Amino acid sequence: MSEIMVPGAPSRLELEFDDNTLLPGLYGQHDRHLARIEQQLDVSLASRGNRVMIKGTSERIEATRQVLSALYDRLKHAKVVGRAEVDDAIRMLGAPHPLGGGNPGAGIVRTRKRLVSPRSPAQATYVEALLAHDLVFALGPAGTGKTYLAVAVAVSMLVDGKVDRIILSRPAVEAGEKLGFLPGDMREKVDPYLRPLYDALYDMLPGDAIAKRMEKGDIEVAPLAFMRGRTLANAYVILDEAQNTTAVQMKMFLTRLGENSRMAVTGDPTQIDLPRGIKPGLLDAVETVAGMEGVACIHFTDRDVVRHPLVSRIVKAYGARAVAADADTAGK
């Protein structure tokens, strides 16, 4: 790809792409990807052959150049570009320190079934933290990739032989249904609580590989209560839905960390199912160990939601209502 400055027109930049076979993926059917970029970045784009003319302010031209370059690099690595990827590239403009200094291969987590790339600046920071720290807390709303990315990093480290096993856990908090009244044995009772962890695993590894590794004990999925009394060495340990732990449970879990092990603790402080008056262990732990060497804490917001765009708006609406309710309470 090369850049051609338009003489006498500082508000215009022409990009020339050297591989015509990638242009249908870059432009999108009927130029829909270019139209999306125009809409989101407030620029004017015109394509002719392998050239794209960008018109707008200098800041918006630079942002558009970065987005088109990122998408073009993605296509050169044989990866698909759709509307979600276009939106991701625009969202990543906010990254203060892009992984790898702009290297399109940096920050990608490789698993047996897929390559997982950060889709927001916060996700990029989170992946860096998961790779660099022994204990990482991730707090934020649903749909921000907290659990998914942690499982991806864990699987990558298992496949590469950096850890011997993965342990995935969740507190089995009863939200309206008593475990004792559910059918089946103990495993059948708790499996519904652990289903999201299984779903993430099956996205990263073939089903037969998961079955074999679970049989050998290389992968273990268990309720939090089963962690008591254990020392988890040479493992990548993930605690999901940690907002539903008590302070005692969280202390028990964190002190399971053994030699050559790492932990990722994820949770959404706005979705707590604990009885009233009990302080969530997630918040208590973050307050206790914040700033400690080897510990990182990543905060996600509604801007980092990478599911359906409506999910981000729903999260934002609930957050605004909670803030308004707190203000009303304070004013009384």
Short summary:
The chain is 42% helix and 17% strand. By secondary structure, it is of the alpha/beta class.
Q: Sheet with the most strands? A: 6 strands, parallel
Percent helix, as a range, is: 40-55%
Summed over residues and divided by their number, the pLDDT gives a mean of 83
Number of DSSP-assigned strands = 12
**Order of SSEs:** EEHHEEHHEEHEHEHHEEHEHEH
Rg: 23 Å
Distance between the termini: 61 Å
Shape by Cα distribution: globular
Stretches where pLDDT is under 50 for at least 5 consecutive residues are 96-105, 174-179
What is the percentage of strand-forming residues?
15-25%
Structural class: alpha/beta
Which strand order spans the largest sheet, edge to edge or round the barrel?
Answer: 9-8-10-11-7-12
Number of helices: 11
Topology, element by element:
Elements: E1 2-5, E2 12-16, H1 23-27, H2 32-41, E3 44-48, E4 51-55, H3 58-76, H4 83-91, E5 109-110, E6 115-116, H5 121-132, E7 135-139, H6 146-159, E8 165-170, H7 186-204, H8 207-216, E9 219-223, E10 235-239, H9 247-254, E11 262-267, H10 281-289, E12 295-299, H11 309-331
Parallel strand pairs: 7-11, 7-12, 8-9, 8-10, 10-11
Antiparallel strand pairs: 1-2, 2-4, 3-4, 5-6
Helix pairs in contact: 2-4, 3-4, 5-6, 6-7, 9-10
Structure description:
With 332 residues, the protein is an alpha/beta fold. Helix content is 42%, strand content 17%. It has eleven helices and twelve strands. The protein has helices spanning 23-27, 32-41, 58-76, 83-91, 121-132, 146-159, 186-204, 207-216, 247-254, 281-289, 309-331; strands spanning 2-5, 12-16, 44-48, 51-55, 109-110, 115-116, 135-139, 165-170, 219-223, 235-239, 262-267, 295-299. The strands form three sheets. The protein has a six-stranded parallel beta sheet with strand order 9-8-10-11-7-12, sandwiched between helices. Helix 9 links the parallel strand 10 (235-239) and strand 11. The protein is globular, with a radius of gyration of 23 Å. The N and C termini lie far apart (61 Å). The model is unreliable at 96-105 and 174-179 (pLDDT under 50).
